[in-house]
Each structure stands twice: as C-alpha cells, then as structure tokens.
Amino acid sequence: GRFEGAALVVDTARFEARPSGNAFALPSSRSKRLTERFELSADRKRLNYSFELSDPEFLAAPVRGELEWTHSPGSELARGDCNLENARRYLEGWVD
User: Fold this and answer.
1) Burial of 55 (C-beta count, 10 Å sphere; 0-12/13-18/19+)
2) Which is more confidently placed, 54 or 92?
3) CA distances from 72 to 29, 48, 69 (A)
4) Residue 59 near residue 76 (C-beta atoms within 8 A)
5) How far is the C-alpha of 62 from the C-alpha of 51, rounded, in Å?
6) pLDDT in tens, 23-39
7) Which phi and psi angles does 22 have, rounded to 5°?
8) How many CA atoms lie within 13 A of 27 on its CB side?
9) Nearest of 47, 45, 65, 42 to residue 8 by alpha carbon
C-alpha cells in the first residue's frame, strides 16, 4: 500500500488463477488486479471506500464500486445464529 495525500491506496496483484476467483462460478486469472482506496471524510466520521477490479481474461471491462462506512459508536452489533448447513453449502460451492 501507499498514501496518495490522505488516502491509503492498496494495490493487489499476483493472484492465483481460481475457478471462482472473481465471483461465484466466475474464474479469475493471474492477470487479476484489485486497487482499493480508503479515505476519511472531512469530518472524520465516515470512511470512504472505492475499488477497481480488473481481469482482462475474464472481465470485459474493470468493475468499480464505492461505499461509505459511518462511524456509529452507539450502535449495537446485530447478531444472528450461524446456520451450519448454509455455511457448509457455501464453502462447498467455493472449493477449487
């Protein structure tokens, strides 16, 4: 990673080729690259996140996205029971 001004930029490359490396049932190649940016808002209460995912072998164009996380110190963590059967099916679907 590196800083560009106040933003932390994380550039990840050298991925292994995987049968489900870009999404469920969407392969990835060794050319896959992920660039992420993390930056605090001016009021320092939100974290702005953006990414660009490219893989010229399997994606026609880079995939981009962004979102914002808001600092909420008074919030309660939402908890839920783990469903072991769902977890097992999820993990089996991602086996390479």
Assistant:
1) buried
2) 54
3) 38, 14, 9
4) no
5) 10
6) 877 899 999 999 999 99
7) -105, -25
8) 11
9) 47
Please give the structure tokens belonging to residue 24. 């469920």
CB of 9 closer than 8 Å to CB of 37: yes
Query: Residue 82 — pLDDT band, cuts 50, 70, 90?
Result: confident
pTM here is 0.77
The whole-angstrom separation of Cα 63 and Cα 23 is 12
Confidence class for position 77, pLDDT limits 50, 70, 90: confident
Which has the higher per-residue pLDDT, 78 or 42? 42
- Residues forming a β-bridge with 51: 36, 65
